[in-house]
Amino acid sequence: MKIILLQIDKTDQSFVEHGVQEFTKRLTRYTSFETITISINKTVRNKTIAEQKQEEEKQLLTHLSKYDVVFLLDEIGKEFSSIQLANQIQSILNAGKKSLCFAIGGPYGFTDELRKKYPLISFSKFTFSHQMIRLLFCEQLYRAFTIIKGEKYHHN
Amino acid sequence: MKIILLQIDKTDQSFVEHGVQEFTKRLTRYTSFETITISINKTVRNKTIAEQKQEEEKQLLTHLSKYDVVFLLDEIGKEFSSIQLANQIQSILNAGKKSLCFAIGGPYGFTDELRKKYPLISFSKFTFSHQMIRLLFCEQLYRAFTIIKGEKYHHN
């Protein structure tokens, strides 16, 4: 199974980029993992928040429709434990799905339409920037595979 | 007021170290902020988990007793929102406290004795490594001050 992290706009914080690279490297031991970045035209960033989210929705939908299973990482979603995330991934693997996509919204999050269409996973009651969430997600995905494989990382 | 992040052992993941440096730099605009690292002797790391936690507790207590207000960042704690954390810090500022310490445990977390002695804050139902928590905390502390000051970062 292929796992995709779908995100909006390039990461401009170098420590986030380095952390994502580090976990991506570690993940190759367990799964096929790819990050896809949607670039939003800079002129769109001068529009209202609602218009920016609308444009992001349009572009996200084009991608999301390609994948067998999709989750949106969204602060209003259900909070999982690391073990619950591992179980969820295991059951998707067991069901023989070909692709699993986790999507992170833009600076203002997802539209309500997208939130209704796909299941939501929340990382925390704390709000994190959409860039930090990339790093948090990659650590959790790596942790999930160490749990699935019964390896050591979980308590380190 | 001085804010202290108390942690166990040096960070060996460079992206965590860089991220912490980045937020530390940004925080100087708002508050006095210092990270204190307790180094645990390597021979202790060959002992049982309980013994390691006991040694960490002993060293943590020496530091924690110095501060006016202490919170432990612990996965079994109460989950705060970013706004709740900002309100909490604001009220400690308003009370005229001189020092506020947030402590992160070692690889296996805090002893039950420490958990009973101090209030706990949880970041997430997800388990993060004690190194990742440093970065998550620094972003949240920075975010809390942007909320207190009514600045822009919160939605970025």
Explain what the structure shows.
2 copies of one chain form a homodimer. In chain A, strands 2-1-4-3-5 form a 5-stranded parallel β-sheet. Chain A is α/β, with parallel strands linked by helices and 156 residues long. Chain A has a single domain, classed as SPOUT methyltransferase, trefoil knot domain (Alpha/beta knot, 3-Layer(aba) Sandwich). In chain A, strand 3 (69-79), helix 3 and strand 4 (99-104) form a beta-alpha-beta unit. The two termini of chain A are 27 Å apart. Chain A is built from 5 helices and 5 strands; from the N terminus they run βαβαβαβαβα. The first copy, chain A, has helices spanning 14-27, 49-64, 82-94, 112-117, 130-148, and strands spanning 2-8, 32-38, 69-79, 99-104, 120-122. The interface between A and B is medium-sized, with 32 and 32 residues.
Features:
homodimer; Alpha/beta knot; 44% helix; 22% strand
Write the layout of secondary structure elements.
Two copies of one chain form a homodimer.
Chain A lengths: L1 E7 L5 H14 L4 E7 L10 H16 L4 E11 L2 H13 L4 E6 L7 H6 L2 E3 L7 H19 L8
Parallel strand pairs in A: 1-2, 1-4, 3-4, 3-5
Helix pairs in contact in A: 1-5, 3-5
Largest interface: A-B, 32 and 32 residues
* Principal-axis shape of chain A: globular
Q: Quickly name the level 1 CATH class of chain A.
A: Alpha Beta
Going by helix content, strand content and strand pairing, the class of chain A is alpha/beta
How would you spell out the order of helices and strands of chain A? EHEHEHEHEH
Ranges of chain A where pLDDT stays below 50 over 5 or more residues in a row are none
The name of the CATH architecture of chain A is 3-Layer(aba) Sandwich
End-to-end gap of chain A: 27 Å
Alpha plus pi helix count of chain A: 5
CATH topology of chain A: Alpha/beta knot
Helix residue percentage of chain A: 40-55%
So what's the oligomer here?
homodimer
Gyration radius over CA of chain A: 15 Å
Give me the CATH superfamily of chain A. SPOUT methyltransferase, trefoil knot domain
